[in-house]
Specification:
The complex is a heterodimer of chains A (625) and B (404). Chain A is an alpha/beta fold and 625 residues long. In chain A, 33% of the residues lie in helices and 12% in strands. Chain A has helices spanning 48-54, 106-122, 137-144, 181-189, 224-228, 240-248, 260-269, 279-289, 298-320, 337-346, 360-376, 393-398, 417-426, 448-451, 458-472, 522-533, 564-579, 590-598, 607-613; strands at 30-35, 38-43, 78-81, 88-89, 100-102, 169-171, 196-198, 205-207, 234-236, 253-258, 293-296, 331-332, 383-389, 413-416, 492-498, 513-520, 542-546. A five-stranded mixed beta sheet of chain A has the order 2-1-5-3-4, with helices on both faces. In chain A, strands 11-10-13-14 form a four-stranded parallel beta sheet, sandwiched between helices. In chain A, α7 packs across α13. Chain B has 404 residues and is an alpha/beta fold. Chain B has three domains: 23-222, NADH-ubiquinone oxidoreductase 51kDa subunit (Rossmann fold, 3-Layer(aba) Sandwich), CATH 3.40.50; 233-305, Ubiquitin-like (UB roll), CATH 3.10.20.600; 310-397, NADH-ubiquinone oxidoreductase 51kDa subunit, iron-sulphur binding domain (de novo design (two linked rop proteins)), CATH 1.20.1440.230. Chain B is globular, with a radius of gyration of 22 Å. The chains are: A alpha/beta (625), B alpha/beta (404). Chains A and B meet through α2 of A and α11, α12 and α13 of B. Bound molecules: flavin mononucleotide (FMN), iron/sulfur cluster (SF4) (4 copies) and FE2/S2 (inorganic) cluster (FES). Flavin mononucleotide (FMN) binds next to β4 and α14 of chain B.
């Protein structure tokens, strides 16, 4: 049985596990359960909900989420277990003895209908003016149960003020049904702990530390809570109106860069099963919407690899050759703005370990409003840069005051996959039907290395392909360039490659075992930071951290719903797309070579690139921003 | 602080019968675990905290659980409106309660006991601590109790935070762990996943006190009192319209009208058995007896005479539940508000009978779909008062034209 490790997670709400015998066919390993006249055999400890789902019996749920620990608070999943006085919640009930379950008795149906009626009676909002219209779990439950009137009334005014303080997340608690998925996301999944139930009884609401606006607390803007909220109580801060305005303004030159993860997921917004990329179709759609240029964020992902890789080699040289003890290793990646804010709040003393390289989004903005503006002969003041991102934190990142190295706001708007889909629909376009088109020049082709940034481990894989080749003059010793130890969804991955027969310039690295760690989700990031604190990372050189579970493809701006299965399919779509590309190493991208020859002429980590492509970080408090 | 205890000991057949500190523990050691469990089972003792779960089963389950630590928790949260019997036991008969805890620890293999004391009983903390210190000196608590190798057990007292729901055993455990006092999902039950995830027995003060007597005097002796399904005797906290309110020990099976006579109640219109979460029994049913099989109660008996307005009584109870709901689950958080809306509509006379029936249906859903006993029992008084006093409440208040 699980023991409490994190004091904030009640034992009962941790996943219920029963030690299972090796051989589940032995008596005791499985248990027979009868659901509505049919008998099934399930492993001991399976919840009623799991047993039903495995056997195609539908049970409605609201507070349950496959990524989160059990709550058992909405009570919509009640079923009748023979011999028990009260109904039982299917999501929380572990089957340990042979029981008989009825999932649709008059009592069960009435209870569920009552619960929906009660929730609706307090719910302030009208579906047709709500961004979750069509993807709202409360709405679909009401439909499923044929709600055609408000048996117990309906809220006619909002109970709480909408909190729009955050650049990333908007909180409208009048639409909250208190399922606490957001609380569990923030505490258990991300281990940030911004949201908590405040007050009790009917006065309960989801609030923040000292009831401060979200922008003033330690929220890292990851948006994971949005992805798991069943209603519109949480949503991203949507800039699409401003973007439309810019598009409609003939004086403005509106550029959009698209990141790989939204492209691998946006199909879901149009009813396509997860696991299909719509890169080419999206290019056409964006041009039809009216963007002047459509570029690929992968271009600056490649640039990031060059800058970050060079930085790593500098650090290694300083330590090994110059014996400079002030240099910090391992070097941590810095492209996930949620992770950046996390370390700024919780581990400010370790900021020196972060790579100073900006994220690809911000590099792109800086290049657009300098190099591109000059080349295209456009006044940077007239350029509006939009970034299509899988991420809510990107909205915060582009608003960071230091992100204006071009002399302008480098990136004007961060747009999520969901918001992009909405704009496309609004323009009357059905994305899957679009003909394919390429990205615009001069940043058209990027390498596959940039593409795989979307999946956890991708940055590491891309960086290794480049660093290894720079140092040894040979390709990484992995079949088909697929560095398998970097792939997959394990929380914290560790591996190494040995550097042998190094080229002259990097002889000092001869024989070094290049060790790396990859983690995704800030709960795992915390584990890595604790390892660092205990000195367990002293022989590790490079650490990749992504704030969101699964990496960017599981970002807080991605289509809802999300679960492990969907994230896996998105990853498959990304890896498949990358295998089909010809250039798969950042340093081989011809546009990268071009930009170092013609613009960043003092080379990677040179003076200009430091000004435009690198940044610094802030120490923040543990309770408030 | 010095607390003056009543020096005249109370009389009663079971709980208030003769008992000397440590006698139960000595007997327990003599009997051994198996025999204690046998006596307990034979006694038919059921939990006195309200739910009435067989104590022997609870103990057996946790005795059988495999774990390196186990806990005994004495539930002294006594929050049910109209109960004050646990206070009397703790103040006047601490030996019964604490010996019961030690016996429980001995039986299931726990070494730590925790008393969860109602916040309002803070004034009892010091005298109880003093008592425990004395017991430790006598080696009835601590290491190698009574000189028996490896018989270790100690007790600490923790103050509650003043929420009624924290008396619910899993919310109590959450509260002990420093979390919001919110009930947990059951199963898993505390007997295998309790305090800090370890097997935990939560028992009411009176249950533990009864155990001391049963172990000393045997299950057969205990069974002599009460009925087949409700063995032994029970402490009743009697309040309301009567001449002699207070704590009474009466055998289970006592009829309501007998009790009314004993406490000197006149012109009684209704008796609320089981506090706010219990049921309201009208005059016509005073032949019913107190017991798990009929009018169940954790001890609270509130008497209303003819002058009382039953709608007001009901409103009071509902206010209590709205105030005390923890708010985590839908049926209780919102359901109680809807029942209250109904009461207010009845008060103003602007209701329809079909609406009231809807609310009663809602109450039935709350009884079966709420997460814990609070929401499961909060509609009891709504349903029973509206059913039993339909004439008084609905018919006199109704101003509408509807004829449903
Ligand atoms: C809302 C609520 C409040 C409760 N309050 C108390 C209480 O104050 N004291 C108590 O002993 N049991 C209380 N209980 C019952 C406990 O959950 C539990 O059943 C009891 O402590 C078990 O002990 P027993 O088996 O000895 O009765 C309460 C239950 C609920 C649902
Ligand atoms: S949150 Fe859901 S139910 Fe509420 S208004 Fe929006 S779509 Fe409708
Ligand atoms: S955005 Fe992330 S950090 Fe902020 S409240 Fe939501 S889950 Fe927590
Ligand atoms: S904000 Fe959303 S996820 Fe959080 S409790 Fe409310 S409805 Fe649930
Ligand atoms: S029934 Fe009431 S008190 Fe119990 S868990 Fe639900 S909301 Fe909380
Ligand atoms: S889904 Fe089971 S209680 Fe909410």
């Amino acid at each position: 049985m699980s023991k409490r490790e994190n004091i904030r997670v009640p034992v009962s709400q941790q996943p219920f596990t029963v030690t299972k015998p090796e051989d589940t066919t032995t008596i005791g390993g499985t248990v027979t359960v009868q659901i509505n006249e049919k008998k099934f055999s399930v492993p001991l400890g399976t919840t009623i909900l799991e047993a039903c789902r495995q056997n195609q019996i539908h049970i409605p749920t609201l507070c349950h989420h496959p990524d989160l620990c059990i709550a058992g608070v909405c009570r919509i999943c009640v079923v009748d277990v023979e011999g028990m006085k009260t109904l039982q919640t299917a999501c929380s009930f572990p089957i340990t003895t042979p029981i008989k379950i009825h999932t649709s008795t008059p009592m069960v149906r009435k209870a569920r209908r009552h619960i929906i009626d009660l929730l609706l009676s307090e719910h302030y909002g009208e579906c047709y003016s709500c961004f979750r219209n069509g993807s709202c779990e409360l709405q679909s439950l009401a439909k499923e149960y044929g709600v055609d009137e408000y048996t117990f009334g309906h809220a006619d005014k909002p109970r709480y003020q909408v909190d729009r303080s955050s650049a990333a997340v908007v909180r409208d608690m009048s639409k909250c049904i208190l399922c606490k998925r957001c609380v569990r996301t923030c505490i258990d999944l991300q281990e940030v702990g911004v949201l908590e139930a405040i007050n009790r009884g009917h006065e309960t609401y989801i609030g923040t530390f000292l009831d401060k606006p979200l922008a003033d607390v330690i929220c890292i803007n990851c948006g994971q809570c949005i992805n798991r909220c069943p209603t519109a109580a949480l949503r991203a801060n949507d800039p699409s109106d401003e973007i439309w305005e810019a598009i409609d303004n003939p004086k403005k030159h509106v550029i959009i860069q698209t990141a790989p993860s939204p492209r691998a997921a946006i199909g879901e917004e149009f009813g396509i099963e997860a696991g299909h990329s719509f890169t080419g179709e999206l290019n056409t759609a964006l041009k039809r919407i009216g963007f002047d240029k459509v570029f690929d964020t992968n271009f600056t992902a490649d640039l990031t690899i060059i800058e970050e890789g060079t930085e790593l080699l500098y650090r290694l040289k300083k330590i090994i050759v110059d014996k400079d003890e002030s240099v910090k290793l391992p070097q941590f990646t810095s492209c996930s703005p949620g992770w950046i804010k996390f370390i700024e709040h919780f581990y400010p003393e370790y900021l020196g370990y972060l790579s100073t390289a900006k994220s690809p989004q911000q590099m792109f903005g800086a290049i657009m409003k300098t190099f591109y503006a000059k080349q295209a002969g456009i006044n940077p003041a007239d350029i509006v840069t939009v970034a299509l991102m899988p991420c809510a934190a990107k909205k915060f990142e582009c608003n960071r005051p230091e992100m204006n190295s071009s002399g302008y706001k480098d990136v004007d708007y961060g747009l999520t996959t969901r918001e992009m889909a909405k704009m496309i629909r609004e323009a009357g376009i059905y994305l899957p039907e679009m003909p394919k088109a390429n990205f615009d020049e001069p940043f058209g082709d990027a390498s596959g290395a940039g593409l795989i940034f979307g999946a956890t481990g991708g940055v590491m894989e891309a960086a290794l392909r480049t660093v290894y080749e720079l140092v040894t003059g040979r390709e990484v010793p992995f079949k088909n360039l697929a560095i398998e130890p970097c792939r997959g969804f394990e929380g914290v991955k560790q591996a190494s490659v040995k550097l042998e027969n190094c080229v002259d310039q990097y002889k000092f690295l001869e024989g070094v075992e290049l060790k790396f760690v990859v983690a995704h989700g800030t709960a795992n990031a915390k584990k890595v930071m604790e390892m660092l604190r205990k000195g367990e990372l002293s022989n590790v050189h490079f650490v990749e951290i992504m704030a969101c579970p699964g990496g960017c493809l599981g970002g807080g701006g991605q289509p809802i719903p999300t679960n492990a299965e969907i994230r896996k399919k998105r990853a498959q779509a990304i890896y498949a797309e990358e295998e089909s590309l010809t250039v798969r190493k950042s340093h081989e991208n011809p546009h990268i070579k071009y930009i170092y020859e013609n613009f960043l002429t003092d080379g990677p980590c040179g003076k200009l690139s430091h000004k435009l492509l690198h940044t610094h970080y802030l120490k923040r408090g543990k309770f408030i921003s | 602080m010095e607390i003056k205890l009543e020096n005249k000991k109370r009389s009663g057949p079971v709980l208030f019968s003769e008992y000397k500190r440590g006698d139960g523990i000595r007997k327990a050691v003599e009997l051994g675990r198996e025999n204690i469990l046998f006596e307990l089972k034979n006694s038919g003792l059921k939990g006195r905290g309200g739910a009435g779960f067989p104590t022997s089963t609870k103990w057996m389950l946790s005795a059988a659980a495999n774990a390196d630590k186990k806990f005994i928790v004495c539930n002294a949260d006594e929050g049910e409106p109209g109960t004050f019997k646990d206070r009397v036991l703790l103040l006047e008969y601490p030996e019964l309660v604490f010996d019961g805890m030690v016996i429980a620890g001995f039986t299931i293999g726990a070494q730590t006991g925790i008393v969860y004391l109602r916040g309002e009983y803070e004034y009892m903390l010091q005298p109880l601590e003093d008592y425990l210190a004395k017991v430790r000196e006598d080696n009835l608590l601590g290491k190698n109790i009574l000189g028996k190798e490896n018989f270790d057990f100690d007790i600490s007292i923790r103050l509650g935070s003043g929420a009624y729901v924290c008396g619910e055993e899993t919310a109590l455990i959450e509260s002990l762990e420093g979390c919001r006092g919110e009930p947990r999902n059951r199963p898993p039950y505390p007997v295998n996943t309790g305090y800090l995830g370890y097997p935990t027995v939560v028992n009411n003060v009176e249950t533990l006190a009864s155990v001391s007597h049963i172990v000393l005097k045997g299950g057969e002796w205990f069974k002599k009192y009460g009925t087949d399904k409700s063995t032994g005797s029970k402490l009743f906290s009697v309040s309301g319209d009567c001449e002699k309110p207070g704590v009474y020990e009466l055998p289970w099976g006592t009829k309501i009208k007998e009790l009314l006579e004993i406490v000197g109640a006149k012109n009684t219109k209704a008796v609320q058995a089981g506090g706010a979460s219990g049921t309201c029994i009208p005059k016509t049913q005073f032949d019913r007896m107190l017991g798990y099989e009929d009018a169940a109660t954790g001890g609270s008996i509130i008497i209303f005479n003819e002058s009382r307005n039953m709608l007001k009584v009901l409103k009071n109870f509902m206010e209590f539940f709205i105030e005390e709901s923890c708010g985590q689950c839908t049926p209780c958080r919102i359901g109680n508000i809807k029942l209250m809306d109904g009461i207010e509509k009845i008060e103003s006379g602007e209701f329809t009978f079909s609406y009231i029936n809807n609310l009663k249906e809602l109450g039935r859903t709350m009884q079966v779909a709420s997460k814990c006993g609070l929401g499961q029992s909060s509609p009891n008084s709504f349903i029973s008062i509206l059913e039993n006093f339909k004439e008084e409440i609905l018919n006199t208040n109704w101003k509408g034209k509807e004829n449903v």
